[in-house]
Amino acid sequence: MVKEKLKNYTFKNSVLSFETYINEFTSKMFHEFDAKAQNINLSLKIDDLINGRIVNFSENQAAWHPKYRMQGPKQNDHLHKLIKKIKKSHNLQKVNLVVIGIGGSFEGPKLLIESLNSPVTNNEHNFQFLTGSDPVEFKYKTSLLDPYETIFIISSKSFSTDGTIEMLKMALDWSPGIDHFVAITANPNEAKKYGFDNNIVSFDKEIGGRYSIWSPIAELPLIEELPYELFLKGGRQADKDILEDEDYIKFIKRLSFSDIWNNNIKDKNIRAVLSYIWSFRSLSDYIQQLEMESLGKQPNQESEYKKTGQVIFGGYGPTAQHSYFQLLHQGTQSLCADIITSKEDPNNLAYAQSITQSKLLSDGANDLKQEERINGNVSVNLFILNKADPYTLGYLIALWEHRTFISASMLGINPFDQFGVIAGKIYTKRYIDNID
What we know:
Blueprint: E1 10-12, E2 16-21, H1 27-39, H2 42-50, E3 54-56, E4 61-62, H3 65-71, H4 78-89, E5 95-100, H5 104-116, E6 125-130, H6 135-142, E7 150-155, H7 162-174, E8 181-185, H8 188-192, E9 200-202, H9 220-223, H10 228-244, H11 246-264, E10 270-275, H12 283-295, E11 311-316, H13 317-320, H14 325-330, E12 335-342, H15 349-363, E13 379-385, H16 390-411, H17 419-435
Parallel strand pairs: 5-6, 5-7, 7-8, 8-9, 10-11, 10-12, 12-13
Antiparallel strand pairs: 1-2, 2-13, 3-4
Helix pairs in contact: 5-12, 10-11, 10-16, 11-16, 12-16
């Protein structure tokens, strides 16, 4: 007897529509998870996050990214003013802005510049992003630049990250002087050790690195007069929805609950995040850090769930279809997928591919030859955005943060620390010290 297919869960609001192709996650299962959410007082935890109360208990501090997107860019627009001042003092028109940063200090600004720029923008700035610690990268990215027409933006919360400091030293040797530099940091005293003084933009330590897209680190679009405020507005609306909109709350809970269920019950511990929107092509890199750094923790001993974060990978969907989709369709791995697309142009080939691939990955196909058969066993979440604009991007990223926070709360882990990352820094320093 053929098992009857369950009706797919759907959600729709003014920003997006959503359909899940996870046929075994029933309403009964959702309510079982929701009962556990009530037992841990999930609604209070969400309220604490959005309202700036302490939620990072290992470091005894709040997480202020919702607060930052609520207040918008700071009134003095310090970064923009500093860049204008440097340009004026050196009589520069079009300049190279070289951003040095790692992790969230790289992924967030890069994503925003890619997403908010357009072919009709009258750009006065050539943006370059440097990340890592290999001097070859520095030489390659600066080889065609004029030092006198280049301004460096050093983005680092601690201003002590080894890779960033190594790049800073190379930049100081290459540049005409410190008056071609701006530091963005939560530790201005450390920046002053390298000669920074009035050219520092500071922010609060309660902003985690992977959330710095909401901080001055990601205010680069303001320099180009791009609609960064619309991006923040989208994030603010998602925060409003998580507090007030019952349908949205149920939607985010279902995302988180099904992630945990897929990982712990169905052994689907790998999830591909695929954007079929070219301007959002780096979104999967951003989400990879957000989820894997937040949820990549040891399980809570008191939790029934012993698998925490999933392995996240992905990229630009139309390209991925011609590389690793072969494994998704016919390989032996058990996995999930989040597919993100926009219906602004329903005649767009990329849109058609996103809809088709969602159904093929989840349901397979019956009219293929034996050797052509595909698995049809991938759990798929399909996000269809009404527009691919700054407001929607802000909404989507805040939505993903809500999803991650709820998952962490259900798992009983802290999504705001990253001691595994810190361990790598400690042991690298010991290694270098021993060489010296």
